[in-house]
Structure formats: structure tokens, C-alpha cells
Fold:
Amino acid sequence: MSVEDLRIRVVGGGGLARSLAMSLGERGAIVTVSASVGDGPLAAVVFAPWDRSVMTPRPLVELTDEEFGAAWQDTMDSAIATCIGAREAFAGRGGSIVLTFPTTAFVGGALHAHWAAAAEGVHILAKSVARQWGPEGIAVNAVAIDPALVLADPASAGPVSIAQPAVPDPEPADALAFLCSTEARSLAGQTITVDGGLWM
Amino acid sequence: MDVTPDLTTDSERPGDRLAGRVVIVTGAGQGVGEGIARRLAGEGAAVVIAARRADTGEPVAASIRDDGGRAVCIVTDVTSRASVEACVATTVAEFGGLDVLVHNAFAGGIASRLESTPPDAWFQMSATSAWGSFWCARAAHPHLAASDQGRLILLTSPSGFEGSANIPLYSPAKAAQRAMAKSLAREWGPDGITVNCIAPVAETPALAGAFEQVPTLRGAIEARTPLGRIGDPTTDIGGVALFLASADSAYVSGQTIVCDGGSFLGL
Structure:
């Protein structure tokens, strides 16, 4: 689903939404974008850069520097810039930052060392940032999602559990909404895993 | 019968558990890397001291040789793919193969706020941890696969589980290595290679530097450590590395052994 398709779906459901392009790795982008919208102060930012069109499986010995950089470095640079931009845009009012990542971070994945590194980097970044910015009223938490939602070929990561999913077709939206809400402001550095119970 | 107990510790008693094995240890000019190199050399391994600077690496290699071990220093910058590849190639040419690669080298960890972390510090942390692991693994793979006991061991940190308020980007840089180890354990298992991590807390120049930056850190670490002390690079961390490098760990892969005196118990 494109970002614009998503916007139309949200509006069609009675919500308010805008779709805006921004460079994730640019540190001032969130401040600029949130100021341009003019719908009120920014309250929450969700980091979900995972694009299945680029999250392709590769044996590590065949990975190029460009491929490793696109997975690890670009993702981490974007996550760092997103956090810093969100804090600036919150402007001392506090807020919520939710970082998403595939559960490949926890369990690894054959042919996915590059994406697993990025995923676990994002996971633990949430903890560091939560520790630093919690006293400022910024709640930083994470949602771990089913790799099937983001990996170009989830089967390539290999079986990671002998179990069947306890919940078919898990939907992370409610967990994300909770962590973005003021009701979750007591949480810091926590991860809610929404993968149907494959990884416990 | 002499019943006097032998008070010599295992780490002081030369052994042969790694006789005939060839090992590269990055960042072996000091600290944890030096301790691991000394411990593995003491068990008969031929050890390559892969250090960024000859003035730290050469004395370690010479000291191991003086103790009767086999060691050479190869000046290696793990932030350079070419340098890592040259180190592996030289090792194989010198010793005829490579059985174990221990990637320990790390740089760039300075206390800072996330929003004011110098870009070069992040570059150094990322380059030595994630990129260094990538290049070490890639260069070593064909040789580890050719060995009947191929081992890749990555040095991560308890901070890579817990996050850090002091050095916020140290934690994700170290966490990445753990996820890479799990992935490569799956990917390289069919090649007979095990891939594991050690998360140590040890008396090192790096930790001494951290204590200078955050004066309360030593007391905080000691206070939460059940064993009440900070680990020794050779006896404490080197012993874990020996287990992971030896035949005793043949059925262990994708794991992280936290070697911190019982401080982190969150797994």
C-alpha cells in the first residue's frame, strides 16, 4: 500500500490524515514537516521505514558494502535523525516516540544478517533514548512486528519457531496507537511484540 | 602422597586445547582482546594479534612468544575492508588456515547526549562494530568453512541489551553484532561454523576511560555485581572465549554469554 493509499483509507474511515514526503535521514525534517502541517503541536512520532521492496535476502559473503550500508547504516542514521527531530518538534512539551522493527532482531535470520543488525540496532536505540529523554517527558518505546509484513521474502529467513502462530494475521495498529497515547507515558524502553505469538 | 592443593589457576597452566588452531583476535593490543589472545595462545593456538597500532600489538605478540606461545602482530584497521581482508590473507599465508576469528576491536564510545553525539564518534562506533563484524565475517568465511572447527566470536556488551543513558549509540552498535551473530549462526550452521557473542565487563583501558568520563560508573557497576568485582580480561573473559573457541562448545551457536559477574540477569 502506498502512503497516499493509506491516507485515503484513513480519511475514508472518518479520520484525519496527510501524506507528506520527507527525507528520514535529515535531522531537521520532522521539525519542518510538523510546522508546515499546522494542525497543532506534534504529540507522537512512529518510525517505520521498513520497505519490503529493498529488504531482500542475501548471503553475507555476497553482500556488497552498498547493500550492507543501505540496511544497517541508512536505517540507523534515519532512526537517530527521527528521534532527534521528534524531540525538537516536541519543543519541551513531551511526547511519544515509537520505533518499529521486525522480530528478526530477536531471532536472527539466515540471509538477513544486514537487516537483523538494523532491526536490533533500532530496538536497543529505543532503550538508550528512553533512558536519556524520559526525564523530559518523552516516552520512547517499540513495537516488534512480524517479518512477514516487511521482509521481501520472509521464508528466506528460515523457520524461527516450531510453533504455529497463536494469532493468525496479527495487526500491530492497536499496540502502536496505545504507545502513541498519553496513557503509555509511564512506559520507557519497552517493546510490545505483535507477531501472532511466533516468538515469545 | 602429596596432598598439597594445586593453587595454579587454569589460566596460568599451559594447555593444548587449541593446539594446531589458528586464531585472529582484533583489538588485541590491549584490554579484552589482549586477554583473549593470551588465554588462547596459552592453550596452544597460533594467535594473530590484529591491532590498529604496531606499538600496542607488537609487544603483546612478543610477550606471548616469550612465554613459549606462537603469535604475530598484523597491523589491522577493522574500519577498512581492505585492511581486514589483508589481515585474513596474511594469516592464512603465514599459518596455513584460519579456525577462529574473534572480533573485539571497538572505538568511538564517548559519553554524550544523543542529540549532541559527534558524528565522528557514531561513525567510529558503527564502523568498528557493525561494519567491522561484516568485513571480518565476510573475509573469514571461506577459511572457517574449510576448518573442521570454524568459529566466529563477536564481542558485544551488556549495554547492547540494556541501552545506555551515558553513551546512547554504544548500545545499538553492540546490539547489531548480536543480531548478526544469530543470523550467521543460522546461515553458516550448514557449513559447520558456530557464531557466538561474549558480552563482557572487564578492567580495560576503554572502561577506565569510561570511569573518567562518568566518575560514578565504577561504583554503580560494582554495587550491582553479585560477584563484587570487575572482570579480568585474561582469566575471566579469556576463559569464556576459550570455551567458545574449543571443541567443548561444538553444539553452541547464536548465543551470547554475558560475562559480567552476574550483573545483567535480564535474559
